[in-house]
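Hi,

Apologies if this is the wrong queue. I'm a grad student, and the batch job for 3-dehydroquinate synthase from Niallia alba produced an output file that my downstream script rejects. I'm not sure whether the problem is my script or the file. Here is the sequence I used:
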Amino acid sequence: MHTVSIQTASKQYDVWIGEHVINQLTFFIQKNFADATKILIITDESVEKLHLKTVENKLSSFPVITYTVPAGEKAKTFDVFYACLTYMLEQHLDRKSLVLALGGGAVGDLAGYVAASFMRGIPFIQIPTTILAHDSAVGGKVAINHPLGKNMIGVFNQPEAVIYDTTFLTTLPLQELRSGFGEVIKHALISDVAFYHELQSQISDLSKVNVGYWSAILEKGILVKRAIVEKDEREANVRAFLNFGHTLGHAIEAEMGYGKFTHGEAIVIGMIFALRLSKQKCDLVFSIEEFIKWLKQLGYAYDIPENLEIDRLIDRMRQDKKSVNGTIRFVLLKELGIPVLVEMNEEEIRKELALFKGGK
Ligand SMILES: NC(=O)c1ccc[n+]([C@@H]2O[C@H](COP(=O)([O-])OP(=O)(O)OC[C@H]3O[C@@H](n4cnc5c(N)ncnc54)[C@H](O)[C@@H]3O)[C@@H](O)[C@H]2O)c1
Ligand SMILES: O=C(O)C(=O)C[C@@H](O)[C@H](O)[C@H](O)COP(=O)(O)O
Ligand SMILES: [Zn+2]
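Support response: The file is valid. Your script probably expects a header line. Output copied below for reference.
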């Protein structure tokens, strides 16, 4: 088991990562929440079938109840958020209650926002079950989607702890490995050239990565995220770098309809576009052809979906949270590992999107 301690401006907490670290849950709750009036596990319908029992078994001496939400982006809606809060009121949770988020980023984002909202805030613990959640469970961004934009309704709310049992990852389908690995690539590209080269040389088939190696690369990703959120918890400046690939990625997710494209797959396309812009605007020296060759090998889509209109993507990007006064901003790379936030002119974006979409 490895422990990564996170110290943000608002809170210190630990991330425990490794096989069977779920055992830590019992000790952590005994030590810190022994008087919890209720412990609510929020999970989704797939994770419930696969891993809920394991977690419940660790909590047999506590007053545990469960609320199950739809799997995937369907969990991040206002209706599910509201239904969750209704259930908590009906079950008489109070300010001494605790929420556990058992699942991927969608469950973590929803449950963290629910916990922040119930009676103005009760504590929650992240129990991530996906590769992608090495990113979502750390750093305290929690939110639901709005038809007009991704993660538009939410708050910053740090968890009490992150208990990342990598044995849960063994049940993930290949598409979810791929989605999560997109954020690992992001963490490498924005801050750690050696890590990027390691990934590129070591990983050619995501289905063959063993749990031990997943643990190691997820921990590296978490360290990248830690370094940034410790400096800038609420995205006043450098935290925006974690949004590399997301300006276009979020626009693709929203335009396709949430859940049609996984988050990680959408941001991979967004990263390719941001790399193309980085070459244009920041003289980045990097072979996008080589990058795409690797992505193809791993099974990623690497084009903007045919049915998406450029003008509509631009409208979406104008609504991005990084925009100021409607001016679209992209995270670009000056060099591998050296990101920068750049304001872009819409005409320039339109031209570059047309070239990208046209395969040029
Ligand atoms: N808060 C943040 O900082 C942050 C960071 C990155 C992404 N996100 C958000 O996270 C979400 C994506 O996260 P995700 O990819 O984990 O999505 P997810 O929670 O939707 O999980 C993906 C799918 O995998 C299933 N699943 C989860 N764990 C499983 C397991 N162990 N075995 C088998 N199936 C399992 C889920 O049921 C779901 O169908 C997006 O909404 C994205 O916006 C948030
Ligand atoms: O933690 C961050 O900050 C990130 O930007 C991480 C992203 O991978 C993540 O998708 C996040 O939810 C995006 O945040 P948003 O503010 O653009 O919605
Ligand atoms: Zn992301």
